[in-house]
Structure formats: C-alpha cells, structure tokens
Amino acid sequence: MRSRRSLLLGPARLCLRLLLLLGYRRRCPPLLRNLVLRWRYGKVCLRSLLYNSFGGSDTVIDSAFEPVYWLVDNVIRWFGVVFVALVIVLTSSIVAIAYLCVLPLILHTYSVPRICWHFVYSHWNLILIVFHYYQAITTPPGYPPQAKTDLATVSICKKCIYPKPARTHHCSICNRCVLKMDHHCPWLNNCVGHYNHRYFFSFCFFMTLGCVYCSFGSWDMFREAYAALEKMKQLNRNKLQVAANQTYHQTPPPAFSFRERMTHKSLVYLWFLCSSVALALGALTVWHAVLISRGETSIERHINKKERHRLSSKGKVFRNPYNYGCLDNWKVFLGVNTRRHWLTRVLLPSSHLPYGNGMTWDPPPYVITPPDSVLAV
Ligand SMILES: [Zn+2]
Ligand SMILES: [Zn+2]
Description:
It contains 11 helices and 6 strands. It has helices at residues 2-24, 30-50, 57-64, 66-109, 112-138, 197-217, 219-245, 258-294, 298-313, 326-334, 340-347; strands at 155-156, 163-164, 169-171, 176-178, 183-185, 190-192.
C-alpha cells in the first residue's frame, strides 16, 4: 500500500520540483510560479496544523469524537437543572405518599412503640437526605487559584492554561479545573470535588438507606395493594364480559372507591421506585465506598490502574500516596478526629470543612504512618 502511494507521489513531487526550478529561473509564466509558491505555502500550513509530537491514533480518535463530546457536555450542562428537579419531585412524591397513604394505615395497625420508632427513624433519615443533597448542589467543589501562587503544581491544564495542583482535573462540563475532582454529577448539576465530596457520598448513602427502609417497610402494604389492584382489574374484566353478554341483571359487585384506588396505586409506585433506586444507587454507593477505602477518586482509579501496570512491567510496586489505610481514609474523608465526631459529624447534619485546602496533600496529624510512595498525579 505504502509502495503504491510512493509510486504515485514520487512523479508528482518530481514534477513540482521541476516546475519550482523553472519558476526560480524565470523560464515559466508568473501564474505558474505563483501557483507553485501557493502550493508550498499550503503544504507548510497543513503540516504545521497537523504536527503533534504526541500525535497518534488516540489523538485522531479524540479529534474525530470531539463533536460528540461537545454535544454530551452541553446536554449534561443544560439538562442538569432538569435532573435536579427530577430528584426533588420524585423524593417529594415518596414523602407525600408516606404521609398521606402509609401513615394513616400504620396508625391503625402498629403498636405505639413501633410507630414512635418509625416516626423518629424516617424523619432522621429524611433530614439527612435533604441536608446532604442541598449541601452537595450548593457547595462549590473547590477551584485552584488562577493567579500567581507559590503552590506546588504538577502540570499545566491544557484548557485553562493555568497550573494544576495534585489531584486537580479539568471538568469539560464546568469548563474549569476542579480540586480533587471525582466526577461531574448530572443529578447534582455540580462537580464532585474536594469541598462537596463528603456531601455527595453521604447523600447517596442516606438516600440508599431511606429507599431500603421504604422497600422493606412497605413490603406487606405493597403486596396487599398489588393484590387489590389485580382484583380490581379482574372485576373490570368481568364487568365488561357481562356487559358484552347482556346478562347483567344482578346488583354489580362492590368496586373500590377513588381514594382506595389511588392509595393502592401510590403504594405500588412507592415500592417500585424505592426498590429500583435502592438497587441502582446502592451499587453506586458501594463503588464509591470502595474507592474511599482505597484513598482514590473515580478519576484516580483509572490513573492509578495505568500507573500500577506501567510500574509492574518494570518490576516496581505502585503505592497511592493518598492512601493512609482503610480506617484513616474514612476518618480523613468524613473529617472525624475524635470518637464524638462519628455522632456529630456523620450521623447528624454537619457542615464542617474537609481537611486541607485541596491543593497540598500533607497527611493529617492523626494519620500515624504515611506510606512511602511513588507520586501519583
Ligand atoms: Zn482546566
Ligand atoms: Zn463539572
């Protein structure tokens, strides 16, 4: 293939050189000379535009997919508000069903201590969900300074053309660099970074907990409601059959009232929605819990994996410099310095700031043995 191309290009180049030579010796008309010069100029322009010392198949694929990335980024940016509204509407619908349909049912059937337990637990869970979601969407993730500083930086962002501290990455949706960036969350319409990572994870955790609680708590009611809806469908089918046969001479069977029908449908909706969210969000929460236990963000997981393979091929062992051990990773992540903090900062709403400024990554004083490590960027 290459030899065939060179067979075609060789004579063409020779012709052009001859023309150029003739042009310089002023033996050809000025139009032709001008044409040759323009050809040379165009060739230099094209080469200077396409030249890239790091170029390769990845660069070509990235360039080809650039319009797709642009479209996805813009769709996520503009639909972020819709996703946030969806979370608020769906959560509010579950709370409304709990108050309007579930509460009257359990008030008649449950014992007083059981009602008290459900009342306290559900409201504690709801307060934590609302608090962490509000904080996650309103807290900026943290951005590196765009002025001259003495901070140690590891690279320059190609998009912002500003120094990039360790663990900082560029978000193409926010169009700026984010400190300790984890990912851009469309459900928050915000980037998850240094200052709101804890709020994001706590929201996922307490939302999963709430959905599991609703699914298990409403299981008996869901079964009864589902059976009642099936019965209702059967009654409607019978009615239609009777009407079709024109043998309807007796009193019609008792039908469900509008309120009963709505209650049954709401309970089925509640159970299906909570179970689906518990499964999907539960899997995401477990994944993030594993990452936090390892002292990694979602982006660092990919970078560290590549680095691990690269170093292992050279017979070296990669160690994540931000991994202080499972328990200490959780303490740093949750901002827990004392035992009391597990209650006041984890199980109760707390707006304390994370350790550090997100630009320098010295281990906190309560982390006993910072590991020897190969620097990960
Ligand atoms: Zn950037
Ligand atoms: Zn972002």
